[in-house]
Amino acid sequence: MKHLSLIFAATLALTACEQQPSGEPVVRSEIGDAVPRPIQDPVETLASEENEDAVCRSVTFESVPLTHCTADPETHRINTGLAPSSGPNFGTIEGWAAGRDESRIAFVMNGGMYDDALKPVGYFVRDEDRLGELDRGDGSGNFYLKPNGVFFGTGGRWQILASDTFLRTIGTRPQFGTQSGPMLVIDGKLHPEIQDNGPSKAIRNGVGVDAEGKAHFVISDAPLSFGQLARYFRDEVKTPNALFLDGNISSLWHPASGRMDKRRVGPVIVVERRDGQ
Questions:
Q1: How far apart, in whole angstroms, are the C-alpha atoms of residue 52 and residue 180?
Q2: Considering the domain boundaries, does residue 257 fall inside one?
Q3: For 229-252, what is each residue's pLDDT tens digit?
């Protein structure tokens, strides 16, 4: 309910629905004086012998446990999806997963912010079908903490661009795309509005694409600040650009480990194994 109450305080006029609480599309949390922390080396735990799928691993960064999942264009494909808006598991990855062949799934993560009907906020493309327009408007909340950005791709080429850059430079519709905000890392630098360690701590997740074209999805397993998440992408994963996906509702399904988070979601990002993998 805390997450839902934050939405009511936002200026994006969305009608509340008790059975379909929305995500965090308009909450700006980084307010207050920065309290910098020293950067610590991450401690990595690789997959056990019983779990040969090392696509997701546990790390610790600045004393915060994270789960870091990597999609490789050589072995994976990416698409987007929408959690069901009705049914017993509506608005969850579990609901989206019902009836699907999990042997093909590497992992699934929440993929952006949404309104009270669980529809994506901003640009959203699924299977080359554009379900949401690029939102370049102003407002309050994380989504509107400019610059925001778009994670998108066609085939094995995946990118993250600030929304204005995306509009200027991308002339063809990608196979998948999702807009969110704020950008965490922009051309190797932290978003100028993100504090080193602001007072807002939450379960959060984001995505970055490295110089080799691999997409890195990171979800915190304990509350952390925007600054900590952004530094992890910049300093440890070394992604030139990284995009915040959401907070408090952040969820992961990793079939190989049996992890299935059940927080409320709308858009999802689906990472599948290519044929023969």
A1: 32
A2: yes
A3: 999 999 999 999 999 999 999 999
Q: How far apart are CA 132 and CA 34, in angstroms?
A: 35
State the Cα–Cα distance between residues 120 and 163, nearest whole angstrom. 15
Cis peptide before 73 (omega within 30 of 0): no
pLDDT of amino acid 100: 95
Residue 122 forms part of a structural domain: yes
236/41 Cα distance (integer angstroms): 8
Assigned domain for 32 exists:
no
Range picked from 6-15, 50-59, 249-258 for highest mean pLDDT: 249-258
Q: Does residue 36 belong to any structural domain of this protein?
A: no
| Cα gap 183→241, rounded to integer Å | 8
Distance of CA 72 to the CA centre of its chain: 17
pLDDT tens for residues 191-218? 999 998 889 999 999 999 999 999 999 9
Least confident of 30-44, 111-125, 197-211, 212-226: 30-44
Sequence-separated (6 or more) residues with CB below 8 Å from residue 179 = 112, 120, 121, 122, 123, 124, 132, 134, 135, 148, 149, 150, 163
Q: What is the pLDDT of residue 29?
A: 42
Taking CA atoms, 52 is separated from 47, 59, 252, in Å, by 6, 17, 18
CA torsion sign for 114, 116, 119, 123 is: negative
Q: Are strands 267-273 and 129-132 parallel, antiparallel or unpaired?
A: unpaired
